Amino acid sequence: MKSVVRGTVCGVALMAALTGCGGGGDADAGAAVGVVGIGGGGEKGKKKSGTLSVPQLWSALPTNEALGDVWVGDDLAVIDGERARQACAEETGTACNGVVAAGHKEAAVRGDASSDRAEFTLFSFDSQQAASAAVKGLAAKMASREPAPQPTKLAAGADETEAFTNGRNRTDVVMRVGNVVAYVLASVSEDNGSALRMATLQVDLIKKAA
Questions:
Q1: Range of the domain at 93
Q2: 86 Cβ neighbours under 8 A, 6+ residues apart
């Protein structure tokens, strides 16, 4: 399987937490402390409306099948507690008080010749106010990068959306859906609407998991 290059602090932090607890990938993730595998929990432990629990956050991450035949992913993690708060704080530049869980998924286009990749990062909070603060912090970090990205319009059905592009092949989308913050990175060689499709898919999955 093609290895996915990790491009965000959250991706590194979440995967470090997963492997540090003994997880070795999707198949045995449920054995790790603070990490729940696919199918592990359903509605059990569901938080108040708008907040996704650990099992729900896992189900809100895109599968390879949902992304499409050309995409393959080998990194998937969901963590909770202090590790989730620390990962959120590093990614958003905010305190992330009230974060319940954090999740991350990475994927790349099949074939060694392609550098196209995508990342999906989720943070579930106990209130919309906390989630909104994290969105603003993450968007501010995106806007302050060098070279400065260009703000762009992107409507994926979220409650709040901030999107940025480098004008060539990368789009970063920061969204709030209820109490969940979603960060979608689409780095593709051609501007074919991938960022909008991925952001819309992520919003739909969050709403279905709630």
A1: 9-209
A2: 13
Q: Kindly list the distances between the CA atom of residue 100 and the CA atoms of 58, 65, 70, 122, 144, in Å, as whole numbers in the listed order.
A: 13, 27, 33, 11, 27
Does residue 84 sit within a domain?
yes
pLDDT one-digit tens code per residue, 78-101: 999 999 999 999 999 999 999 999
* Residue 82, SS3 per DSSP: helix
- Note the pTM of the prediction, 2 decimals: 0.80
Does residue 2 fall inside a structural domain?
no
Please compute Rg for the chain using Cα positions: 16
Q: Give residue for tokens 């409306």.
A: 49
User: Which two tokens mark 48?
Assistant: 């108040």
- State pLDDT tens for residues 155-183: 999 999 999 998 788 999 999 999 999 99
Residue 49 within a domain: yes
Q: Residue 175 has which token pair?
A: 């969204």
* Alpha-helical regions (H) of the chain: 9-20, 54-60, 64-67, 81-92, 128-143, 194-209
Q: How many domains does the chain have?
A: 1
Residue 51 domain flag: yes
Residues linked to residue 152 through DSSP beta bridges, in sequence order: 163
Contact 29, 39 (CB under 8 A): no
CATH number at residue 66: 3.40.1000
